Amino acid sequence: ELIDELLASLEVQHLKDGEYLMRAGDEADDMFFVQDGAVTAQLEREDGRIIRLETMGKGRAGGERGFYLNQQRTAAVVSSGESIVYRLTKERLAEIEDQQPEIASTMHRLIVHLLSDRVTHLVGVVNVLQQ
Known about the structure:
Layout: H1 2-8, E1 11-15, E2 20-22, E3 30-36, E4 38-44, E5 50-57, E6 61-62, H2 64-69, E7 76-79, E8 83-89, H3 90-99, H4 101-130
Antiparallel strand pairs: 1-8, 2-7, 3-6, 3-8, 4-5, 4-7
C-alpha cells in the first residue's frame, strides 16, 4: 500500500517521556505521524503554566499547519510516555514529490483528510459553545 511505502521512506524517532518534538517559535521544517504512544501539544506560558491543547495517539499527525504554511511553531509538542513517530522533513517531501509522485499525492490527500476532520471538530465545538 502507498501509505506503507510513505512511512518506510520517513525517519523514525523513538521518544522518551517528556522529550520535545518541537517548541513554540521553532521553524516548521518538519511534521510527524504518531506510530506508537502519544504526544501532547501544549502552550507553555512565561509564568510556568502549561495549557494542554491536545493529546495525539497512534495514527495522528502533527506540525502540519506550520509545515504547509511556512510559519513558526505556535505550541510545543512533548512525548507523553515512550513514543515512536515518523518524521517528514521538507527536504524529504521534495524528494518524494520528485521521485515518487504517487506516494506524495497519497500523503497530501491524507493531510487534507486530517485537516478536514479537525475543521469539522472545531465547528462542532464552536456550535456547542454558542448554545
